[in-house]
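User: I would dearly like some help making sense of a protein record. This is the protein in question:
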Amino acid sequence: MAGRFDPLTRTDLRAGRTPVPAGRGAVAGGGAKRRAWTPGGPLDLGLVLGPLRRGPGDPTFRTTPDGSVWRGTRTPAGPATLRVSLTADGVEAEAWGPGADWVLDGLPVLLGAEDDPAAFVPRHRLVHSSHRRRPGLRLTRTGLVLESLIPTVLEQKVTSDEAYRAWRRLVVRHGEPAPGPAGRPELYVMPSARAWALIPSWDWHRAGVDIKRSDTIVRAARVAARLEEAATMELPQAAARLEAVPGIGPWTSAETLQRSNGAPDAVTTGDLHLPRIIGYALTGNRDVDDAEMLELLSPYAGQRHRAARLILLAGHTPPRRAPRMYRSDIGRI
């Protein structure tokens, strides 16, 4: 169940096994609440929670040498810190803050309890191999739309490094320190919807975020309650709800709903690299557009995001023949 490098998220999470007492609803040291949970099959924390990490310096996500994953999150009940680790018996979690009960109640769903890997049938040799090598892959479901939407908007049409830098700066400057005991990893909770809407233009600029992306985030923050309702909708309705906000298109809604809703069929379109990677992996042809990618993934209808994830994890990517995306830095202008 050890974690591995995940090319989808560029993370390397190694899930350790630190034995702790089991229990549900008990209070742990430092005022934490604690929950133990036994998954119904193999579980790889790195593969499950890795998509929630926005770069190696994400201030809302940390891993520690014992293999624990720490998250700072803003729940409907308030800020919370969640620590998750694997044990000999399954999963042990501790939580702090006003949202502690909320995150512990949602722990199984966060770790893929509502995901159904058995619904996936590999149709290609490469996909079959990748699937067989990763029995612990489950699709996370956070139930929090804005938490996934905002960093996804920051990633629109810029390099990953630029988006990660903007996310770090904005969260640290306008969010708040996550609750928890002394000695925990430095961790933050992202700003509230109101705080996102009130970020001044010069702070967006200093974070390297252009006006198109900042305006999209502000518009989304102003209708945050309506967007959060998408977490309980079926995929077509949820995507339509998000895409009703100007500046949010199919790429952004798919990347968001993969995380907030655990949507196995939310395949990403409009991506610069994904069609070429999938085309090359399945056919050897790298000159593939969105329509051709969707045709290649059609045997996985209902599970296209999972299929794409497994293809990315296989690491069978085409050799680079074009320069990397130009890195802008409007924060220095």
